[in-house]
Amino acid sequence: MTLSLQTCGGATPAGEAAHPVFFRGFRAHAQAAAAGLLAVADVAAARYYQPQRSAWLYPVVTGNGDRLRFESFSGCCGVYARLDMLGEALDGNETGHGTTNIDVNTPLRDSLTRVGPAGPLSLEVGPDELTVTAFEGPVVEKKVPLPDRWLRGFAETQVIASGFDPRAELSAAEAVRFLRTLPRQGASRGAARGARWVVPAGRSLRATTRPVPGAVCLPGPERLAALPRVLRHAEGLRVHGPAVTPDSVPAASAWEVRLPGMRLTLTLSPDASRGFSGEGGVLDALASQESPEDAESVSALLAWDPAVDIADLAAHSGLGPQRVRAALTRLGTPGRIGYDTAEAAYFHRELPYDTGRAERHNPRLRAAQALVEARAVCLDGEPVTVTVDDHHHRVRTDGQRVTCTCRWWAEHRGSRGPCKHALAVRLARQAAAGRTATAPNPAVASPGGLR
């Protein structure tokens, strides 16, 4: 299998380039690679919540110096897929740096489906089109811009996944056995609601009706329907998720299938009806006053490394690890940062968007800014009152925990980020602090002041 990938202009370690080529060469394990690419395309073409026929969308490809990453979101934005082709699977060919998006539509899917264990396939991504050449001849497809919802999804998944730890590991045989018991897309509503939680049991996983320590949420098991495509090549399965207690609400989880020289990971949102684009994990970073400057400092140090070293960035930027993580969260809003659960590390990609675009397309942040501009926030006392029309909402801050009396908070209890009222209070407090810091001291600023 031969790959030739290049960006449509963009940043590289050597500076800006018009068409930086970031991989050209042979691809080992061609059939497994084709299956992995098809699985990423399956997710991009699927809509798991309120299923309907989706138009083909456009997986993102990133070269990170020693690997290629192919990423996509489902049409409902509730499933994030990533195929990592590692150096050992790239047959020793040099891998450069860059990001682009490719079209995977019916002719290309047909070509990938026909790839055999030793079948040849040439794939080239150029400035304006994708060309695939197999036995049947070349297939050419044009590229289009990525949806804004994908941009917000990239931002949210790196925040959510950074809170995961490995929870279970299955052999190839046990992985196949477990995954084949799950309902597939199109299953009945009752089947789709099957196992909400799974817990390690011997060499496999068993379903449980409630969260217990060590359990992993499996929200909408039919959303793992893309994994069976690669099971014949699987070498094992690892499951990642956050720590849970008996009182935990449904949570996101990541399901990683190890392939020869590759990893295919599907990350599921906490509920089939919830897309990653609305989770709100980046809102605190977007509302922070210091994160823009911190993000600018950290941005200058990013070097397309396959794994971003937090300690190294902290040492070179002069910021503490916590501020570096907040800066990376903010850099993730224009899609510049991702998170690899397998290596528990951030990675660098470049998309042609700025942070302002993510802010402009975030409805909760825009609503909070509008409340501040309308002077709807009264900072006198605790709790703080936020007035919307004839309703008064009370926002209370207790250490790091912020609560509100609004309906959003009652429904989600902070599991989907702050509500617009809490965000408005934070923005108003930052604005007030800024005014206080820049106000002149009357004792020294005027001739008539105290001496």
Automatic annotation (TrEMBL):
Compositional bias of kind Low complexity: 432-443
One Gene Ontology term of the molecular function aspect: zinc ion binding
Region (Disordered): 432-451
Protein's name according to its UniProt entry: SWIM zinc finger family protein
Upper taxonomic lineage: Bacteria, Bacillati, Actinomycetota, Actinomycetes, Kitasatosporales
Pfam family, one: SWIM
InterPro entries given in the database record: Znf_SWIM
